[in-house]
Structures are given as structure tokens and as C-alpha cells.
Design goal:
Blueprint (H helix, E strand, L loop, with lengths): L3 H25 L9 E4 L3 H5 L2 E9 L2 E11 L2 E7 L5 E4 L12 H17 L4 E2 L11 E2 L6 E4 L8 H11 L3 H10 L6 E4 L12 E4 L5 H8 L2
Parallel strand pairs: 1-10
Antiparallel strand pairs: 1-2, 2-3, 3-4, 4-5, 6-7, 6-10, 8-9
Helix pairs in contact: 1-3, 1-6
Length: about 220
Amino acid sequence: MVDPDKAREIRDQLRLDNERLIQEMRDDSIHFLSPRGDQIDFSDPILADLGFKGITFEMDPRNRRDTIVSLNVGNFTYQAVLDEYFALRETGPEGRSVVLPDDGELLRNILLSHLHAIRCTDTVKDTEAALPGESGERSFRGRRAHRRILAEGYSPTRAQILLILRDYDIDLNRWNEERARQGKERRVTYVKESEADTNQGAPVRSVAPQATNKLRAILTAT
């Protein structure tokens, strides 16, 4: 039986880490999801022991600032929707929604930590079939869509403003206005993705071995 005090401590630590992940994604997101989605296969033995196999992130076609999350647990796939502020705004089809019981902070941490790995780090490794002469595990093939901070005094072009609106439903002018309100003088622009292969349709398949470092530390602390 789990010590109630210990369980409460773990839940509080996960809640704080979830707040950190959300804040960093709101303030410091660099990369965008692939237009064809991102599938991450879990490599952490702790997640495997809990029955979690992997997670897929896809832009919601109704509002591409929102993210459809599909979590593979055992033989089932459960869905949730993270809104643009990374809150669970809406759940998936009946019988397949992510339910947040007392261990809801754990589930939120699994969702948020892997999305954070995509959006805020360069640690996600592509595991799709290698091209001739390549190893089977490498960084995102080609160039993932990302933001770029411009030199002082420069602004994004009209073409870049229209591209990010078309690809991700993001208003780049509003984004830069928000940065200015935060005291950030340099504006950002949008750099479109460029893939070196033609494997369209299926999500980009990856692993993110460092995504669960904090989660593992919280769960295994004595």
C-alpha cells in the first residue's frame, strides 16, 4: 500500500513540474509539430511498467493551435485535446477519453513532458527507416518548422506572416505584440519545415529518452 503522505508529495511535485513545463512552452517554444503529426514511442522502463507504450501529437484541424493527443496504454488508445495554452480543454470520443483521477498529475506530466521535448528541446530522435548511409536513429530528418529570433530592428516578412497563419493558425503579428508587452525588443519570424524524404501521411516516428528525466526522478526518490 502506498503511503498517503508520500503519494501526496509525489502529486505535489508533479503538479509543480507540470506548471514549469507549461510556462516554458508558453514562453520559450522553438519548434512546431510536424504537419503530419509526431508519434513518440516510449523508451522509459518506468512508463513500460505502468503500461504506457507511446503518444501521438497532431494539430486539431478545427484549430491548429490546439493539439490532439493520443496516448497508447495497453491495448487501448485514449485521446485528449490540449488547447493553445496547454490545458486539457476537451476530451476525445466517448470511451476513449483520458480520465484524470487522483493520479491525473502523472498523466498530465506524461503528455506535457513529451510535447515539451518536441517544442523546447533538440533531444527528440527520429526513428523512421534510415536513408542509405544513415544510422537508424537521428534528429528530425531535414528541418523542423521553428521560430527564429530576428536581429534588432528587423520584422518578419509578409510571406512569413501568411505562411505561419496558413500552416499553424498563428497570428505572427499578435505573437510579436505579446513579446513587446513582455519587454522583448527583438521580434520573431517563422521558418517553414523542410523534409528530406517523401514519407507523407504517417506521423514522424521518434523517441524522446530525456523527456521523462524529471518524472523518473520524482517517482524514484526515496
